[in-house]
Amino acid sequence: MSSAAPRTAGPDHLWSVEEHLEDILATVRPLEPIELNLLDAQGCVLVEDITVPLSLPPFDNSSMDGYAVRVADVAGASEEFPAVLEVVGDVAAGQADLLHVGPGQAARIMTGAPLPPGAETVVPVEWTDGGLGEGPVTGMRARSLAPEAAEGHVHVYRPAEARAHVRAKGSDVKAGDRALDAGTVLGPPQIALLAAIGRGTVRVRPRPRVVVMSTGSELVQPDEQLGSGQIYDSNSFALTAAAIDAGAIAYRVGAVADDAETLRATIEDQLVRADLLVTTGGVSVGAYDVVKEALSHVGDEDAPGSGIEFRKLAMQPGKPQGFGSIGPDHTPLLALPGNPVSSYVSFELFARPAIRALMGLDDIHRPRTRATLTAAKALTSPKGRRQFLRATYADGSVSPVGGAGSHLVAALAHADALIVVPEDVESVEPGSEVEVVLLG
Question: Residue 234's CB: how many other CB atoms inside 10 A?
Answer without folding.
Answer: 17
